[in-house]
């Protein structure tokens, strides 16, 4: 896929926004491509991590937020661990994901952001994931009410899914974590 890089005059470029959000200096990347060679989803995306990093170097605009890797990245930290320059590439992907949500990028309209919101909502409410609540929230967000329901009895039988939430988690700590990581509107931490 060919992607055009536009240099629109904005108050803060995408590179600067990513740098502020991720807290990393992307200028030290020398394109060794170790991040892409170790990426477990690199073969299934159109733009692997090294290509995303290069596009940021070249001054990519908001079109980079449409990249499929932004939402397919599993945040396994393999790219960050393999980087000889110590760049936290996974944090860069997290920053791009955050910016995509803030700017309403088309890629943020798929099912992955809906799953992320359902998952985080479950953790916020119960201090850990509550499977049934998370599944219900996801199903309502995607309008896929009957999809995969044939698997439910088997999962229930094997005790892979609980009908009731667990209240063993330290909800005060989880609440503090959510409060600490919550960013005010306007993009600044």
Description:
Helix content is 48%, strand content 0%. It has 189 residues and is mostly helical. It has 2 domains: 14-107, Fumarate Reductase Iron-sulfur Protein, Chain B, domain 2 (Orthogonal Bundle), CATH 1.10.1060.10; 112-181, no CATH class. It is globular and about 50 Å long.
How many beta-strand runs? Answer: 0
- What is the total number of structural domains? 2
Outline: globular
Low-confidence stretches: none
Percent strand equals under 5%
**Main sheet: strands, sense, barrel:** none
What name does the CATH topology of the largest domain carry? Fumarate Reductase Iron-sulfur Protein, Chain B, domain 2
User: What is the CATH domain class of the largest domain?
Assistant: Mainly Alpha
What is the tally of helical segments?
10
**Percent of residues in helices:** 40-55%
Could you tell me how far the N terminus lies from the C terminus, measured between alpha carbons in angstroms?
A: 34 Å
Helix and strand element order: HHHHHHHHHH
For CATH, the homologous superfamily of the largest domain is named as Alpha-helical ferredoxin
Please write out the topology.
Layout: H1 14-22, H2 34-38, H3 49-57, H4 69-72, H5 78-82, H6 89-103, H7 112-126, H8 131-142, H9 152-157, H10 171-181
Helix pairs in contact: 1-6, 7-8, 7-10
Task: Write a short abstract of this structure.
This protein is mainly alpha-helical and about 190 residues long. The protein is built from 10 helices and no strands. The protein has helices spanning about 15-20, 35-40, 50-55, 70, 80, 90-105, 110-125, 130-140, 150-155, 170-180.
């Amino acid at each position: 896929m060919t992607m055009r890089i536009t240099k629109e005059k904005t108050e803060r470029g995408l590179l600067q926004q990513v740098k502020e959000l991720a807290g990393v200096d992307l200028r030290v990347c020398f394109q060794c491509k170790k991040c892409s060679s170790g990426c477990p989803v690199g073969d299934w995306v159109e733009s692997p991590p090294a290509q995303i990093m290069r596009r940021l170097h070249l001054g990519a605009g908001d079109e980079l937020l449409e990249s499929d890797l932004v939402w397919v990245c599993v945040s396994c930290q393999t790219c960050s661990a393999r980087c000889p320059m110590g760049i936290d590439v996974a944090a860069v992907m997290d920053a791009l994901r955050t910016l995509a949500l803030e700017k309403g990028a088309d890629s943020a309209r798929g099912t992955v952001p809906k799953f992320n919101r359902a998952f985080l909502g479950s953790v916020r409410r119960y201090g850990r994931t509550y499977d049934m609540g998370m599944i219900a929230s996801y199903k309502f967000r995607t309008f896929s009410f009957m999809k995969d329901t044939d698997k439910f009895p088997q999962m229930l039988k094997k005790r892979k899914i609980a009908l009731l939430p667990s209240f063993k988690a330290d909800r005060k700590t989880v609440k503090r974590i959510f409060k600490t990581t919550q960013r005010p509107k306007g993009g600044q931490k």
